[in-house]
Structures are given as structure tokens and as C-alpha cells.
Write a structure and sequence with these properties.
Elements (H helix, E strand, L loop, with lengths): L1 E8 L11 H10 L4 E7 L5 H6 L5 E10 L2 E6 L11 H10 L3 E5 L2 E2 L3 E2 L2 H5 L5 E6 L5 H15 L3 E4 L11 E6 L5 H9 L3 E5 L4 H11 L1
Parallel strand pairs: 1-2, 2-3, 5-8, 8-9
Antiparallel strand pairs: 1-10, 3-4, 4-5, 6-7, 10-11
Length: 213
């Protein structure tokens, strides 16, 4: 079966997001998606609420870890990861928990602009190639895809939404035996994925800034 997930959404548990869990749930259902990953910045505080309110949605527990010069999405973590470690150290901490490490927005100034040589030795599990917050969207996606190809890694996509308007703008289509979390993550690691979406507008960027100020 194929399911569509937005694998990068932030909630009010991130300091720079206004999305409540209820809003995320509603918007994901309105988009016709099967679920999402809650990937707040350096915290898993919102995961209990997300899992409690998921209903028939697939909710992938996640966290966006702030490493040096990059951000790493940990899928299905048990606990938070220290911030400010190197990419390799961050991924090692993620793997120690049995979680999956996805390089978020590889080329997304001012947040990150990675070196492929550093990534080759980092033991990543996948690369987020479609991130709706990156600009210019099409060009940056092409850079991300080239990186994933050079590293021979699976691809993912997500909206990186901080406001309700952009939830579902980026997505991952996963060919999975079932919607159970273990099968979904295993399918991501095995590269049974497609990533797509579109960028957010200048107006939506401005709206985000207004809402979080």
C-alpha cells in the first residue's frame, strides 16, 4: 500500500511555530494525507498529545535536532538529543536509540549548507529533498536530490510547516506493507519513497514572521 505523509511539521511545542496539535490533525485530514511526523525543534514534549489525538492517522514521532552546521530529523526517538554536536556525533546518538536519521533541508541558508564530504562519513539513513520552506524551492530541491543520489540514500519530503497555511505543502509517498510505525520507518530506510510538494509564498513567509513575533 502507498501512504502519503508530511514528514516535517512543527507545533506550538517549538518556539517558532503556532500550530496546535488539533490544527495539524485537521489540516492533514483536509489534505487527504494518511498522517504526518511531528518534528519539533530539540524537544519531544508534544509527542504524547500528538499520539493521543491521532485517531486513524499515522503519526511518526520525530524531533529536529540542531547539530553544528546542519539539522537532523530523528524518526521515532526515545529521548532528546544534545544540541550543538557534530553531524556524525548527532547521528550516532540517534542510532544509539534505534531511531532513524534524516538530513533536513541540506541547502537551506541560513539554517544549513552542508558539505558532501562531511555527509559521506555521517551514516545518514535518508535525505529530505523536498522541503517547502527552502528558497528558491525548485533549485534547492534539485541540489538536495543530487546530494541524495551521490550519497545513495532514500529521499523524504515535508512542509517544515510553522503555520497552518503550509501544512501538507511537502510530502513523502511511502510504499509500505502496512501503516504500522515499524513498517513505515523500515520502508523509508529501504528507499520505498517518493518526495514532492511546492514552496511557500513570500506572503506565507511574512505571515509566519508576524505570527511568531
Amino acid at each position: 500500500m502507498k501512504i502519503t505523509l508530511d514528514l516535517h511539521i512543527h507545533s506550538v511545542y517549538s518556539k517558532d511555530s503556532v500550530n496546535t496539535i488539533d490544527t495539524i490533525t485537521r489540516r492533514i485530514k483536509e489534505a487527504g494525507f494518511h498522517g504526518y511526523a511531528l518534528a519539533d525543534h530539540d524537544t519531544i514534549e508534544g509527542l504524547p498529545e500528538a499520539l493521543e489525538k491521532k485517531g486513524d492517522l499515522v503519526v511518526v514521532p520525530a524531533i529536529e535536532v540542531t547539530a553544528r552546521a546542519a539539522h537532523i530529523l530523528a524518526l521515532d526517538p526515545n529521548e532528546t538529543i544534545p544540541i550543538g554536536l557534530s553531524v556524525a556525533e548527532t547521528i550516532e546518538k540517534i542510532h544509539e536509540q534505534g531511531a532513524t536519521a534524516v538530513l533536513a533541508h541540506p541547502y537551506g541558508l541560513p539554517r544549513s549548507w552542508v558539505s558532501i564530504n562531511n555527509m559521506k562519513d555521517a551514516s545518514l539513513d535518508a535525505v529530505e529533498v523536498a522541503n517547502s520552506a527552502q528558497i528558491p524551492y525548485g533549485y534547492i530541491c534539485s541540489l538536495n536530490r543530487k546530494l541524495a543520489e551521490e550519497l545513495n540514500l532514500p529521499v523524504t519530503g515535508g512542509s517544515d510547516a510553522h503555520i497552518p497555511d503550509t501544512i501538507g505543502r511537502g510530502y513523502t509517498i511511502i510504499d509500505t506493507p502496512s501503516p504500522e510505525l515499524c513498517d513505515v520507518i523500515d520502508s523509508i530506510r529501504k528507499g520505498r519513497t517518493e518526495a514532492g510538494g511546492s514552496g511557500i509564498s513570500i506572503y506565507e513567509r511574512y505571515k509566519k514572521l508576524l505570527k511568531i513575533m
